[in-house]
Design a protein that fits this description.
By secondary structure, the chain is mainly beta. It is built from 3 helices and 49 strands. The N terminus is likely disordered.
Length: 625
């Protein structure tokens, strides 16, 4: 009885606190429809010194001048697709001219190549084969706008001491090819002072162009079966002001700022990419035009280490296949509008928030996320346009993926461990967030308690997902819907967050879900579900490494799971649960709780019933929103 009174007081205090927050809000905008992005005001999210960032400062200037005709105020979710030309998919070439790099003097057999004091300028379209070493120089492409250029790096090395290594000023488009067996190296200066560098002052900000080792004002594709190493000492590694594609090549980027940037899009196909970045790992920046600012991955292996976001996309992200491994200081994968995963493997080994967008849709794939705040977070600075229609990309149709390997099965035990002794240092009754990174403000404590953002969705239609989160495991500021797949959540050990947290509802119609964690903010599927679930509060908290088993009345094991963190709350949903059947929950072979399926979501043990969800807002490391 005393325990129930204390719990009631906790709930009452929480609700009063929520009422106070809502009262203090000056306005709340809510209408029905698809999520869109309003660009009429500044972005709500800022990471690092973005205004001092060579890419972002320059982006502000160009969007207000050169690109004014492309500006729109509202961009809605769109279907991400990629198209490839025959030239991009072919690594064969017919040489038009050669360029030999040499510190004693570069040479070329073409009149369309101008060479002066280490500066090499290509003035006409064609295929140029480049080899040798230049320890202080630059390669510039400056042709007519209707002339494509292919640069074949044949064991080429270019280092600049006062600018970038390759500057593409004008061309129809440029393809950089790295032939099989070649090793190519590009490095820029710590400070850009060369004649071709444009330095302007505007509103007290210094704007520098170019600002990347490879800097292109045109569409840029990098392909081949060779290796390209890019070292940035000034700002970004590889940057295109239009579309950027990397196809099949092995590309290694080390950058003091962003690793790889494509303004209109970044498309990665069958590439082997490694990025170590002082800001974002891979970034697409155009948020002012419908159908731009996206990223698409199909095939290949991508490994990212980033101080900020591993992947940061201004509109929509799509992945169909391949492997992505991310170690990030902020979000693992962030998109302002939508993230869609149709296959492949994603492993976020460290992050503040693992996967974040206004609408997240998982149709298939193999996903493993570790986050010090929320694992999945469907939230964003969005408005809702009631005239818009839902994107076909976010349908429930799953795509087959041949490279999806098992994360888990019915006896799943994750290999991510919180501590070497198999226990968690936080107590389940502790209200303080156990986080290795900065608190996310309302996104951390009390499960967010932010206003509902209509249109924010977390949709899981297939795949195999594991989440280990110190904040909320699965968090949406509106709805969570699970129609299939396998979802395993090792949630928070503090009572201010929940393994599941929705703004309005959690609907389960298929698949397997297990979410374990602390009791304080435990939320379970609601009556909108068509598959049975149990929301169980165990008699005590159990240590990481203990085995949770659910058996039917005949003693048959229908589910077994070994959490990696301390837990007391268990939310479980499976097609194996049958109406009228009685089940036992035991831990390490000792029975703890019994329940009978008598309604869509059964409350068992010490659980108090389904907790109201409040969503978590878009988390930031400094606690702001």
């Amino acid at each position: 009885m005393k325990k129930n009174i204390l719990f009631f007081k906790y709930r009452l205090t929480k609700l009063l606190f929520i009422a106070l927050i809502i009262t203090c809000m000056t306005s709340v905008t809510a209408c029905t429809g698809i999520v869109t992005k309003d660009n009429s005001s500044a972005s709500s999210e800022s990471t690092g010194n973005e205004d001092d960032d060579g890419d972002d400062v320059e982006k502000e200037a160009e969007d207000s001048t050169d690109d004014e005709e492309e500006d729109v105020e509202t961009v809605s979710i769109f279907e991400v697709e990629a198209e490839y030309s025959d030239e991009e998919l072919s690594f064969d070439y017919e040489e038009d001219a050669s360029i030999e790099l040499n510190d004693e003097g570069c040479t070329s057999d073409s009149d369309n190549v101008e060479i002066k004091d280490g500066k090499i300028t290509i003035t006409a379209g064609g295929t140029y084969v480049i080899s040798g070493t230049l320890s202080d120089g630059i390669l510039i492409v400056d042709t007519e706008e209707d002339e494509p250029v292919r640069l074949v790096l044949n064991d080429a090395s270019i280092t600049s001491k006062d600018s970038c290594a390759i500057y593409i000023k004008n061309a129809e488009y440029v393809i950089i090819t790295c032939p099989k067996g070649t090793n190519n190296y590009l490095e820029d200066a710590e400070e850009y002072t060369a004649d071709e560098v444009e330095i302007t002052e505007e509103n007290g900000e210094t704007k520098v162009k170019p600002c990347a080792v490879i800097y292109s004002k045109e569409d840029l594709s990098i392909n081949g079966e060779g290796t390209l190493t890019v070292v940035s000492n000034y700002k970004n590694g590889i940057q295109s002001k239009d579309n950027l594609k990397i196809i099949s090549a092995t590309v290694k980027v080390t950058a003091v700022n962003n690793g790889i940037v494509g303004k209109d899009s970044v498309v990665l196909k069958d590439a082997n990419i490694t990025v170590d970045a002082g800001n974002h790992g891979i970034k697409s920046t155009n948020d002012g035009k419908q159908g731009k600012g996206y990223m698409f991955i199909e095939g290949g292996t991508i490994k990212i280490t980033a101080v900020e976001d591993g992947i940061h996309v201004s509109t929509c992200f799509r992945m169909d296949s391949g492997t992505v491994v991310i170690d990030a200081g902020d979000d693992g994968i962030h998109a302002d509008l939508a993230i869609t995963v149709n296959g492949g493997t994603i492993k976020v080994t460290d992050s503040y928030e693992g996967i974040e967008a206004a609408v997240i849709t998982i149709n298939d794939g193999n996903i493993d996320v570790r986050a010090s705040d929320d694992g999945f977070n469907a939230a964003g600075s969005t408005v809702l346009n009631e005239d818009s229609e839902a994107s076909e990309e976010n349908s429930n149709d799953s795509s087959d993926s041949s490279d999806s390997s098992d994360i888990s099965d019915s006896s799943y035990s994750s290999d991510i461990s919180d501590s070497s002794d198999g226990s968690d240092s936080s107590d389940s009754s502790d209200g303080a967030q156990n986080s290795s990174k900065n608190s996310g403000g309302f996104g951390g404590g009390f499960g967010g308690m932010m206003d509902v953002e209509e249109g924010c969705e977390l949709n899981i239609n297939g795949g195999k997902i594991y989440v280990n989160a110190d904040g909320d495991g699965l968090d949406s500021n509106d709805t969570i819907t699970i129609t299939g797949g396998e979802v395993y959540v090792d949630g928070p050990t503090n009572n201010g967050n929940g393994a599941l947290d929705s703004g309005t509802s959690i609907t389960v119609t298929g698949g397997t879900l297990v979410a374990v964690g602390s009791m304080g903010m435990a939320e379970a599927p609601d009556d909108s579900s068509t598959q049975y679930s149990v929301n169980a509060g165990l008699t005590t908290s159990y240590s990481a490494g203990t085995t949770l088993t659910i058996t039917d009345s005949s003693g048959n094991v229908i589910f077994e799971y070994t959490p990696n963190k301390k837990y007391q709350s268990v939310v479980f949903s499976s097609p194996e649960l049958k109406e009228g059947e009685t089940y036992n929950i035991s831990v390490d072979g000792t029975e703890d709780t019994t329940f009978t399926v008598s309604e869509m979501t059964v409350t068992a043990g010490t659980a108090s019933g389904n907790s109201s969800g409040f969503g978590g807002g878009r988390g930031m490391k400094d606690g702001s929103r």
